[in-house]
């Protein structure tokens, strides 16, 4: 049996660990052959692939990024995209496909499996941790650790200059990175997409912090928006899945704080730093287990499913169910951390 593997969407710490887990167990225990498709869905769409074997995955566990490359290619928007993928899978003699990705990548896998008979297994990947079918996605822990370390370092410069520092972190629709890193890093204000914010209230918290002779740190998700305004966009352009490109709310908020309070404010946008570099121990552990269980699903012919973490167990859920609804921050959790605001 020959199994195809691809990694789609934004790169993420732990992708290589998944690939390694799939190949190691698939070769050693099941005697499978593996084909790696380059750059997400572009690989099977254009027939661009490499051979994956044990030597190819040796030493990649601690490496960030993905040895297969990634992209946001959407084959559902390409003329004859589904037909081309099926033809190239047949030419490569691929019997099943493991797709590692987030909402968009897995959405394509669900369509291929449920509507077009392509045997697919999904592995959830997003640093945003917003897939509802799994307790955690790999990459999230690394992103939170990186953001927390940045906040820790910014405290000293904020206090040295007695200025406001606004830290913009990733999080399009869900504020998991902001609320975890903000709480862990001792931020004085945390703003997330699920809770539109009042700029006057933010300024009041900032002013209160200065009265205590401390400089405030404001952590804001890239998808957060003010109550009386719209989401701040980078340039209004869209990716291939129709998502607007975000980034800019941190700079906008810093200017508003400075204008309204008279206090100097600066912005740090962590951006792609959050998902680059070596994965944390937890992400290596989780990604490896996902890979092992994904190849088990292929072995058992359990297609159209995604592996997911529930407690400490790895389970399988329908891919379509896993991508149907995003997992967002519960208002109760946001209220819980609000005691530290201001």
Shape: elongated
The percent range for helix content is 25-40%
For this structure, the CATH topology of the largest domain is Rossmann fold
Stretches with pLDDT under 50, minimum 5 residues: none
Provide the structure class: alpha/beta
Name the beta content range: 15-25%
CATH architecture label of the largest domain: 3-Layer(aba) Sandwich
Give the number of DSSP strands.
13
What is the distance, rounded to the nearest whole angstrom, between the alpha carbons of the first and last residues? 59 Å
- Count the DSSP helices: 12
Gyration radius from CA atoms, angstroms: 21 Å
* Widest β-sheet, arrangement of strands: 3-2-1-4-5-12-13
H-E order: EHEHEHHEHEHEHEHEEEHEHEEHH
Mean pLDDT: 92
Report the top-level CATH class of the largest domain. Alpha Beta
Largest sheet: 7 strands, mixed
Structure description:
Residues 2-298 form the Phosphofructokinase domain. With 342 residues, the protein is an alpha/beta fold. It folds into two domains: 2-138 and 279-322, Rossmann fold; 143-276, Phosphofructokinase domain (Rossmann fold, 3-Layer(aba) Sandwich), CATH 3.40.50. It contains twelve helices and 13 strands. The strands form three sheets. It has a seven-stranded mixed beta sheet with strand order 3-2-1-4-5-12-13, sandwiched between helices. Strand 4, helix 5 (103-116) and strand 5 form a beta-alpha-beta unit. Helix 6 crosses helix 7 (176-184). The chain is elongated and about 70 Å long. The chain starts with a strand and ends in a 5-residue tail after the last helix. The mean pLDDT is 92.
């Amino acid at each position: 049996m020959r199994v195809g593997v691809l990694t789609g969407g934004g790169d993420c710490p732990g992708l290589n660990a998944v690939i390694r887990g799939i190949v190691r167990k698939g070769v050693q225990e099941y005697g499978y052959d593996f084909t790696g498709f380059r750059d997400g869905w572009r690989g099977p769409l254009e027939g661009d692939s490499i051979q994956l074997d044990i030597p190819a995955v040796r030493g990649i566990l601690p490496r960030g990024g993905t040895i297969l490359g990634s992209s946001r290619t959407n084959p559902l928007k390409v003329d004859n995209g589904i037909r081309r993928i099926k033809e190239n899978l047949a030419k490569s003699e691929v019997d099943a496909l493991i797709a590692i990705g987030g909402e968009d990548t897995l959405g394509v896998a669900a369509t291929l499996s449920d509507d077009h008979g392509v045997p697919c297994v999904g592995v959830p990947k997003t640093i945003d941790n917003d897939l509802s079918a799994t307790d955690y996605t790999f990459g999230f822990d690394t992103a939170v650790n990186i953001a927390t370390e940045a906040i820790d370092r910014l405290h000293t410069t904020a206090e040295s200059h007695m200025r406001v520092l606004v830290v913009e972190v990733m999080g399009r629709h869900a504020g998991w990175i902001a609320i975890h890193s903000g709480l862990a890093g001792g931020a004085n204000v945390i703003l997330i997409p699920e809770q539109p914010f009042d700029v006057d209230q933010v300024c009041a918290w900032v002013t209160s912090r200065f009265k205590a002779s401390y400089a405030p740190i404001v952590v804001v998700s890239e998808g957060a928006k003010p109550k009386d305004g719209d989401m701040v966009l980078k340039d209004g352009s869209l990716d291939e899945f129709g998502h607007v490109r975000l980034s800019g709310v941190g700079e906008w908020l810093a200017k508003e704080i400075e204008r309204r309070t008279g206090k100097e404010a600066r912005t740090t946008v962590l951006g792609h730093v959050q998902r680059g570099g070596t994965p944390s121990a937890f992400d290596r552990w989780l990604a490896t287990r996902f890979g092992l269980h994904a190849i088990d699903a292929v072995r058992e012919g359990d297609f159209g499913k995604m592996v997911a973490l529930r407690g400490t167990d790895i389970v399988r859920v329908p891919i379509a169910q896993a991508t149907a609804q995003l997992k967002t921050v519960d208002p109760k959790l946001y209220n819980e951390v609000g005691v530290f605001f201001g």
